[in-house]
Amino acid sequence: MKKHRTTHFMSSIYMIIFVALFLIITGRFMYIQATGEVSGVQLNEWADKQRTASYTMNSERGKIYDKNGMVLAYDRPTYRMYAILDEAYSENAEEPLHVSNAEETAKKLAPLLGVEEEEIQEPIQNGLDNNRFQVEFGKFGKQISKQVKDEIEDLNIPGINFEEEPMRYYPNGMFASHIIGFAREEEKETDEGVEHTITGVTGMEDVMNDILGGKDGYISYQRDLYNKKLLDPSEVIQLPEDGDDIYLTIDQKIQTLLEDVMTQADEKYNPTKMNAIIMDPKSGEIVAMSSRPSYDPNNPTDVENWYNDPISTPFEPGSTMKIFTWAAAIEEGVYNGSEGFKSGTYQPNEKIRAIGDHNNGEGWGTISYDEGFERSSNVAASKLLWEKLDSESYYEYLQAFGFEEPTGIDLPGEAVGKISYNWPSDKLRTAFGQSSTVTPIQQMKAASAIVNGGKMVKPYVVDKVVDSTSGDTISETEQEYVGQPISEETAEQMKKLMSSVVNGEHGTGKPYQLEDYMVGGKTGTAEIPNPDGGGYLQGRENYVFSFMGMAPIDDPQLMVYVSIQQPELEPDESGSTPLSFIFKNVVENSLHYMDINPEKNEAPDIQQMEMPDVVNKSTSEVEEEMTETGLNTIVVGEGSKVVSSSIEAGASVLPNEKVILITDEPTMPDIKGWSLREVMTLANLLDLQVESFGSGYVTTQNIDVGNPLQSGDYLGVELEGPSSTDDEEESSEEENEEETGEDESE
C-alpha cells in the first residue's frame, strides 16, 4: 500500500511538471505567433533578411581636371578575385561552378598572380575544411588588372570569379602631387557585408572629398539557398549618385614643363628641397606648383615629405623680402632712390651686431639706394628701416602685406610665418629677410600688389565645380582683392626697381634674363639656421637660394617663385645656376604657349605655330605637311587617313612637343624613351589600358612594335630614370659673387 501511494504521488508530480512545461511551450508558441518576435528579433524581418541578397552599386568618384579639361585623376576599374567552394553551387550545372581541386587551381593561378602556389592553396583548403561558401585571397587577390583577369578567365578555372572595384588613378604620375593629393580604398563593415569606398587622404582629394565622393546605390532581391533569384524576387534598385567634377587652375602643359625641369635639376644638383609656384598675378590663379621631394600618388610609399612646402613650410626668405622693405619706404614718402649711402657694414649702435653686405662686408663704396636694391645690399635695407622708416611703421606694412595671416588659398595645411620683432637686431634683419619667417605663397600674394596697382589678390587652385551628370557649373571661383598695402605709383616704381635687378649693370638677377621677354625680379640667398645650436650653417652650398620674378615686367602675365635648398654645385656654379635653368625654361616657353607677344626678338616659327586640322585627311598629305613645319610628329599605324591627333586644331604647339597622329589602322609604335605622360596621351587616343612599373622613361613595352592595336588592349611599360647629364650653364664672376653669402650679416 505504501508503494502504491508513493507511485501515485510521483505520478501526480510528473503530471504537474508536464502540464506546466506544456503550458509554457504552448504559451511561448502562441506569443511568437501573435507578436512575430523572438528575443527582440522580428521573425519576418529576420527571414526577409536571410532570403534577401543586397549588393552595393558603387558610385563613381568625381574626376579632377586641369583648367583646359585634361584629366588628372579618375576612377579606374580593377578586379577582386574570390573562389566559390560550396559543391551545392554547381547543382544542375553542366560544368562545375565551384573549386573542385585546390592544388590544381593554385598551380594555374600562381604564375599569373606572381605568388607561390601555397599562398593560393592554403586559403582554399582552409575554406574547404571549414565548409565555407567562398573565400578571398587578401592583398594579391585585389586590384587585379583587366589583362590578368582576362588571362585567368581564359583558363576556365572552376569556381574562380571576379568582382569589379574602382581604384583611384593618376595618369600623369608624379604631377602636382602635393596639390592633387591621393585617395585610397577603405573597407567598412555594414549590415550587408564589407563596403569598399574611395576616400581622399591628402591634397584636393582630401579637402574636396565631400564634393568628389558620390553616394553609392544598391540592388536587393529575394534569393534561394544558392543565391539565385526567385521567380518573384521583389527587386529594389537604388541608382548611385556620382561625385561632382573639379577643375583646377593648373595648366597641364605649364605644370608639365615645370615638373620636367625640376626633375632634371633635382637629379643633377641633388638638393635637400626645391619649391616652385607659377601664378597669374592678376587673377590669383595658381598655374603650376611643384616641390621636391615629391611622390607618385599611384604608389604613395616611402614618401619623404608629405608637406606641400610652398604653403606649409615657413622659412627665413632672404633678400626677396627687400621688395617689401623698399615698397614700404617708397609708399611712406621717405625714399630717395638717388640718395647716396656708404655700403659695406652698418651698426646703428654698439648694442646691435653689425650688418654686413653679402661680399664679406666690403661693399661698393658710396652708392645710391636704387643701386643698393640692384646689388641687393643688406646695409641699404637696414638703413631704410632704421633711419628712414621707423620700425613700427615698417611692421604695419608687413601686416598690410599679409605676412602674419594665412593667404586663404584653397589647399589644406597652410601655415603662417612669424614676424620676429622683439629686439632691434630682429627688426633690422627682418628688413632683408632674416630672423622672421614667411611662406612662398605669402610672398606671392604680397608681391601681386606690384602687378595690380597696389592691390593684392587671393591665390586659389580650384577653378570650378561641375555636375558630372549634367555638365552644369555648380560653383566658380572669381578674382578677389584682399587688401591694398601700396599705391599704384609705388607699384610702378617697384616694377622699375625689379627690372633693374635683372637688366641693370650691377643687377644680381642677370642669369634670369629671357630671350624674348623683359623680366623683373629679386634674388634671395637665405641662411639656414643651425639645427644643432645657435647661428647659421656655414659653407657656400648651405643656403636656400631663391628668385621671385615677373614677366613681361611692363605688364606681367606670370609671376614665379622658385627656390632650391643646399644644392651640390660645381666650383664654377652659383646658386642661381639651377634656379635660372628652371625659371628660364618654364617662363620663356610658357609665355610663348600663352601667345604673349615677344618684347625683344621674334620668336621662332615653331613657337608661334598653330596646329593644323589633320583629322580625316590623307595620312601621306598630313605627313608631308607636318614635315614641312618641322614639328616632332609620330604617325601611329599604316592607315590611309588620320582619325585623331594629340593636339587639337588651332592649339599652340610648344617646341619639341610630340604630336601623335592616329591612323585608321593603328599599330604599336616604338615608345622607348617616352615619358609616362606621353604614353598616357597615346593610351587615351587609342583607349588602351595602361599599367606602368617604375618612373622616368620607357625602357620596355609588352606590345611589339608593329602589332595591330584595338580599343581596350593592355599596354604594360617599364620606366627607368635618366642618367644624370651635365648641362652646360654660363656662369660669370659677377654671378658667382652676387649669390654666394648674399645675406650673411657678418
List the keywords.
alpha+beta; Beta-lactamase; 7-stranded mixed beta sheet; 5-stranded antiparallel beta sheet; 22 helices; 29 strands; 21% strand; disordered C terminus; transmembrane helix; serine-type D-Ala-D-Ala carboxypeptidase; transmembrane; PCN-bd_Tpept
Structure explained in plain terms:
The protein has 746 residues and is α+β, with helices and mostly antiparallel strands. It has four domains: 2-50; 53-248, Alpha-Beta Complex (Penicillin-binding protein 2a (Domain 2)); 252-296 and 309-593, 3-Layer(aba) Sandwich (Beta-lactamase); 610-651 and 658-720, Trypsin Inhibitor V, Chain A (2-Layer Sandwich), CATH 3.30.10. Strands 4, 5, 6, 7, 12, 19 and 20 form a seven-stranded mixed sheet that branches. A five-stranded antiparallel sheet has the order 14-13-23-22-21, with helices on both faces. Helix 3 (102-113) runs antiparallel to helix 4, helix 9 runs antiparallel to helix 18 (576-593) and helix 12 (369-375) packs across helix 17 (488-503). The protein is globular, with a radius of gyration of 35 Å. The relative contact order is 0.09. One of its GO terms (biological process) is peptidoglycan biosynthetic process. Its EC number is 3.4.16.4. It is an enzyme of class 3 (hydrolase).
Morphology call: globular
CATH class of the largest domain: Alpha Beta
Q: What's the gyration radius in Å?
A: 35 Å
Q: Helix amount, in percent?
A: 25-40%
Kindly identify the CATH topology of the largest domain. Answer: Beta-lactamase
What would you call the structural class?
alpha+beta
Summed up, the helix count is 22
Number of strands: 29
Let me know the CATH homologous superfamily of the largest domain: DD-peptidase/beta-lactamase superfamily
CATH architecture of the largest domain: 3-Layer(aba) Sandwich
Major beta sheet, specifics?
7 strands, mixed
Protein name: serine-type D-Ala-D-Ala carboxypeptidase
GO molecular function: penicillin binding; serine-type D-Ala-D-Ala carboxypeptidase activity
Subcellular location: Membrane
Pathway: Cell wall biogenesis; peptidoglycan biosynthesis
